Structure formats: C-alpha cells, structure tokens
Amino acid sequence: MSEKVEIGPFHTELEESVYFKLEVDKNRIVENVEIINGFIHRGMESLVTKKNFMQNLILTERVCSLCSNNHPMTYAMAVEQIAGIKIPLRAEALRVIADEVKRIASDMFNLSMLTHIAHTHQLMKDTMNTREHMQDLKEVIWGNRMDMSSNLLTGTKYDLDERKIKIILDTLDVVEPKIRDLQERYENDEQLKSKTVGVGVLPLKDALEIGVTGPVARGSGINNDVRVKAPYGLYAYRPEIQPNVSLSLREEGDVHARAMARFGDILEAVRIIRDVVTDMPEGDTYVDKRPHIPAGEAVVRTEAPRGELIYYLKTDGSQKPVRMRWKVPTFTNWEALKVMILGDKVDNVTMILNSIDPCISCTDR
Amino acid sequence: MSEVIPKLFRINTGSCNGCDVEFMPTVLVEKFGVSTLGVEMVEDIKDANLIAITGPLTARSESFLKSAVSKIRHPYVVVGVGTCAITCGIFRDSYAINGPTDKIVDVNVNVAGCPPRPQSIAEGIAKGVKVLNQVMNGEATPKTIDAIFKDFSAPESFRGRMDLNPDMCTACRTCETVCPSTAIKITEIAAGHVHNIWHNSCCYCGNCAYFCPTGAIFSTNSFDTVKLQSEKYEDVNSEIIKSSTCSSCGDTYMPPSRGLLGKGYVHDDVKKLDTKICSKCRKEANFKRMYA
Predict the structure, then answer these.
(1) B180 lies in which domain range?
(2) pLDDT per residue over B167-178, tens digit each?
C-alpha cells in the first residue's frame, strides 16, 4: 500500500520553491517521484532582450545570486567574443579572483545548509561563521555581500591596490585553517556521517549517462571541470593556476561525497586566489566602457560553483541582444535527483535535493 | 499589555535566492541579533504569525501563495524582504511576474535592498515584531517606527542608497540608460529637469555611479532601508537640475555642469569660464571671433 507525500512548494528546509509529489511504501521508502518546478520562472530570456547590454550586466547577475559573478562574466565573455575584443590580462586576473571568492562563499553556504538539515548545529554554526569572513570580504572590496557587480563588458569595474590585496590575503589566512579544520570534522563527525553516508547515491554509470557537472560529478568520480578541460580566461594563459581536481574527486557518489568534493573545490579556490593575487599582471582593467557590439553569435562556457555554465548570445548590431540562452549546471544535475531519491527514505528528500546544490532560480529563470 | 511570541515563516515567491541566502545567516548567525528578539522559526505556516516574503511573485507562485496565506490565523504581520517583494525590482517588466506581493497580502514592513544586508533584514524582523505586538494589543500602527538595532555602520565601499549632487549633473541621461531596474527617471520641466531615484525600485548595483561621466550620482553607504508600508511610495530622492537663461539671446538652455566643464577644461579654472551663454550663441560668438 503506497502513501502519497507532498513536500513544498514553501518549506523551511527548501531554500527555493519546488514541489515534490512522492509515493512512499510502508517503510517510508520512496517508490515514485515527481518533481514540479517553474515557481521561480521570471521570464529572463524575454527580459534580457528588452534591456540593453549595460543593463544586462546587472540583470544576468540576478539570474541567480549564488553564482552571481559567473553569469555576468560568461555573458561579458560572449559579448567580447562577438566584438572580437581581447581584454587586458589584469582584467582576466581580477575576474578569476571575484569568481573564486564567490565559489568559496557559495559552496560554504551549501555545506552549512547540509548541516542545518542534518541537525548538526555546532557544525552548521561554525560553517556559517567561517562563511561570514568571505561575506565581509565581498562587502569591503566589491560593496555587496551577494551581487558584486564586478564585471564590465571588456573588463572589470573594480581594481585592487596594495591595501585591498592585503585585506584579501589576511582574510584567506584566517579562513583557510578554519576550512581545513571543518573539512576534518565533516570527514569524521559520526552524527553527520550517519545521516549522509550511503544516502542519495549516484553511481558512476548513471552520472555519466545523465551528464552531471560540477561537485555532483566530482562526488561520483568524474572530472569534467571546465577550468581544466576547456580552460578560459586566465586559466588558459596560466595553466599552473588551474585547480587540481584530484583533490576534489570522490568515488562514493553519496551526499557525504558531494559535500567533501565541495571542500576540495573550496581549498583549491583559496589556493588559486592566493596565486593570482600575489602575482597580479600590470595594466588596464578594461578596454572600452561602452563598446560597440556588432552582429554575431557566440557560445561560451565556464565553470560556475555548481558546474558547467553555457551562454549562447546572438546580436544584430543594435543596443539589445536578439537572443540569449543559458544552459545552467542544475539543469543536468536535476535529472540525477530522480536516481538519487528513488529507493531512499522520504525524510532524506530535502537533504538529497540540497546535496546537488540546486539553483532553481538558474534552472527556472 | 501582553507579549506575543513571534513565529517566523519564510516564503519564496520567485526570488533570485539572494534574499533567501541572506535570510539564513540573519536567523542563524548570532551577531545579527535576531535571537535577542525571541523569534521562533516554525515548520508549518499554520503556526506562524510573522511571515517574511521574498521574490517578485511569479505567475506560477501566485495561487500557491494565496492558498498558503489563507491558512494563517489572524492576526499576522508580513515583512517583505528585498526590493523584488516591494516593487518587483529588476524583473518588473516581465510577462511572468504578477507582483508585487502587496497585491495579494497586506504587507506591513518593507526591507529594500538587493539583497538587503542581514542587519537590514534583522531590523525588518524587529520592526515586524513591534507591529505584531501593536496589532495583538489592538493599537494602531504609527506612521514611522524608530530604528531598533542602533548599529548601522557599514564599510565605506558598501553600495547603499544612491544620492545625487545636482550641481554636477547635466541631465545627460546616462544613468537612466544603464539602470537595469528603471529606478531613475529624468523629466523635463520649465525650470530644468527633475531627477528622481526610487529607492524601492533600485537594485543597488552601482551601474549609474560607474557610468556617470561627471560623478554626479554616487552611492552612499547608508542602508537604512527598512520602512513601513505607509512609507512605500514616499521613499524617493528628487532633485531639480536647473536650466539657465542665455545672457545673449534669452533662451532657456541646459548649462554644462561644473563636473562636465572640469572634464573638458582640465588645465583651466572652470569658475572663470563664461557659462551663461547657450551653445547656439557660443557657436556664433566663436565664429565671429575667428572669422569676423
């Protein structure tokens, strides 16, 4: 006899609105799952064609506030590809710094939500407090805790001087030992392990078939990090700063493995920021504040905190894009949810959803 | 006078998750002071009496919000978190947006910001609690409520409320063009131009300040954006950029601002320049000087 369970759309453990219709057997094991989304659909693809290129720098940031540096950066890269503009090396370095700072804050948020749902309160508090250092850093350097507004077509809006570089390095010195300590505690905490190990397993075969990306892929032993496989920006100019993905790779494919893969990402991001900041290329930070954008098409991909992000942009020489389309990381990771949730306990559903670090506002747009 | 235990529930009606992500540390990190308010997070909306709503209210969420709100027991207080909840912000022009939320729910307190700082959200919750206490005791909500958390310091670099220096502005409309949430509007009047900034539509991105050629529009680090619903439409920064009368032909014209002249005449003292002459008369005067 199966029972119907509904979760959502407004639920305390769901960061964003999504609606689960589940069928569970008498042991509370999920037999059938239907995931309904669309709650965050704001008509972004229509909106971007109504706004000009300068406005879209900010609008793309609001596709999703957790990867709010990757979106405008990828958009700017697409515009630069169409206009045939090569941006200064210093701007490439500044973009990488903003990107990796966002990656640390985003992954730390996901980890604190995991411990929040797993009811390991001390771990959650410590993760959240560690993340606050990154939030304060963003506020001091870029002026906002979430939407940094750092990108500009043909470069970046912000620049770093000696004082700001020192602030970044000091923050990293404070944060890194705390992250290493947290990593060890996540690895060994019995309460957390009892709730996450063996939960929401995504086997390698399914992961390959579905084509998952980002930490979800790395948790199942796949390395498809765009920064390594198809380097862009500064990752292409200076291959030595590319992340060492083997530090993030895990074989287990469960919730715990995905959390630990994120720790690998965070620590590599810390290392990348240090490398870039201590060896900043000299020069301008942008080419032209308001460049002319000719007609053309471009496809660009980058590695967002959640995985591969693809932008398609078509322009016709006017002030507004004709078409802009995204393929966001959660789009592919979403399909993997069905594999993960089926055959698992109904109480674990929100935790499994959290483990793919869903960005529903990216996916629904 | 009885004290009420505020029971908080968050509803996301389609936000970009910035406000939701900032809401979690506000509630979970001790330094923001929400724990001092005695607020309790509840699992079920039926138990709640303090609702925080984020997002611009997408078409898909509308019916679910209606049914969720109908389950809450009266009296309750609603805090709109983020610019989207107040005016739909940057998403206002989209076909998929049915907001803002005050079309469906009676909002009591608004917290503008994109996303608001946790300190602002905490202040919003605190004011919500105060309004809730007043409602429970049958008192009327006053026009304004004083700040509850006193510490409003933000780093110098923080992008807060925008401000305009009318002396520097020449109404070139760059800010209006680059503003993604159409929070800036410049209207021509007899005496010059009116420059309006709606703080409740602003997404605090700093695009206007960055692209402004004269530095007339700038962001302050003030984040005092928590207002009651009754103040919703009054939170506007309005300045008049005066036009001049040409000393030669008597026409009204828009004079170049101090900032713009400073850019053009880098080595000269701008004050010495005769700016009381319109561009048409200046052209003629120059022509006569050179060729007459």
Answers:
(1) 162-221+236-242
(2) 888 888 888 888
pLDDT digits (tens, 9 = 90+) for B179-204: 988 888 888 888 888 888 888 888 88
Q: Are residues B24 and B88 in the same domain?
A: yes
Query: Residue A327: in which H helix or E strand, if any?
Result: strand A323-327
Secondary-structure class of domain A41-328 per CATH: mainly alpha
Tokens 């905190």 belong to which residue? A305
Classify residue B189: in a domain, yes or no. Answer: yes
Query: Which pLDDT tens digit goes with each residue over A260-300?
Result: 888 988 998 999 999 898 888 888 888 888 888 889 899 99
Q: Quote the minimal CA–CA distance from A198 to chain B in Å.
A: 27
- Domain of residue B172, CATH code: 3.30.70.3270
Q: What is the ipTM of this complex?
A: 0.82
Residues of B in contact with A152 (CB under 8 A): 210
In a domain, B144, yes or no: no
Q: Which residue has the tokens 């997070």?
A: B41
Mind giving me the DSSP string for A118-170? TT-HHHHHHHHHHHHHHHHHHHHHTSSSS----EETTEES----HHHHHHHHH
Residue spans of chain B under pLDDT 70: 1-2, 143-145, 149-150, 152, 266-275, 292
Chain A residues with beta carbon closer than 8 angstroms to that of B94:
42-44, 46-47
Structure token digits, residue A260? 């630990």
Q: How far apart are CA B121 and CA B119, in angstroms?
A: 6
- Dihedral over Cα of A248, A249, A250, A256: its sign: positive
